[in-house]
Design brief:
By secondary structure, the chain is of the alpha+beta class. Helix content is about 55%, strand content about 15%. The radius of gyration is 37 Å and the shape is elongated. It starts with 17 loop residues before the first helix and ends with a helix.
Length: about 450
Amino acid sequence: MNKGKPQISFVVGEDRCLAEIISRTEIEPLLRSLVKAGPVWAVVLDEDRLPLCRQGDDRPLEKLREISHPLLVEGEPQGMLVIAFDPLACGGAEALALLARDALQLTITNNLKRMLTTEMHTSIVQESYDQLVETNQRLTKSEGRYRELALQLERKVEERTTELQKAYSRMLQQEKLAAVGGLAAGMAHEINNPNGFVHSNISTLGRYVERMKEMLNFYQLLIAANTPLQQMREDTEQRRRTLKLEVVFSDTAALLEQSLEGTDRIARIVADLKAFSHVDERGDSDADLNVELERILSVLAPQIPPGTAITKGLQRLPPFGCNPGLLSQAFFNIIQNAIQSRSEGLQLNIYSENPGDEIVIRIADNGCGIPVDNLYRVFEPFFSTREVGCGTGMGLAVAREIIKGTGGNIEIESEEGSGTTVTVRLPNRNLAAIKVNHE
């Protein structure tokens, strides 16, 4: 290079500190979104371990778990992403950390590429043609390397996103299986009760039949022996009293009636469960939401605490076009939460109405309520205030996604110690169709 010519002040491999490459305004939105997804706090540190940006609470670290990932500049660690989370309340933290790391790394790489391009362009325009060709070749190679790196990072982000979606789908499936498991246990108890006395009645009827057979055999023996009529009367009466046939005859009708009632009860339980699951239905259809609520209460009956007072104010509703099985799952999750909010003295109120252009379902309880600090988190996936192993934290998250999918919304009002009210608002599709036709 000739003397007096401007020198290139930025070349590939020149040391750059992290703060020169990425700004706080670029980091802060990502960390804020990351903290909303579950971690308690998150921070990006520079090469001297000094914070560039931090978001979240200042909870003591000894109560939290820490995950850190290096941030690379030209393949060398120049910073660190650190997140801290409560291991009992944040599921999928590792995946969230990796996703955030990949997003930061992609920003750093793109910024570095832009800096390289800008500074090299400023100097190159003043250089000779030969220098320009040489620098252009070097720049082309560098851009190719950065392009490949950017593609690799994008692929990693896509892979992590896919993994998170699969993990979320698995948790949804686990939530459904947990609900099915609870239902199965309750239904087994409900079916076993009538099945038990039906079995007992049939066993008793079997013994009664044996006594009747014995009486008939006795008659046949007397007839075969040409027993005199008077003697036959005395002997058969004595045997009749011995076998207690009067009791048998009077009890048989009651046993049959009870057994038929038991089989009818089993049939109703199975019919309610089948209707609730909509196993024979596919796709969308018109549903009577009042009927769906009644069915849910029926299948949840084994889980309702003794002494619970249930108040129902179900007004007439128009048919609602939806996937009945999915919407029933949403209401099932909401009502089950209400049932589990109090072990005794529970007051459960379920109302429905059709004010104008919407359908409103309101489910209220006098249970333990939700602390104000947790109220905004109740729809977060995996968030649960129940003991570990007693819930997946997906019930309300699943309910909200299903209700939003129908074009509706869900609201929660609660006060700790004073109960909870969940309001579901759904569009009156029939009224909307009428308006369109008139227009």
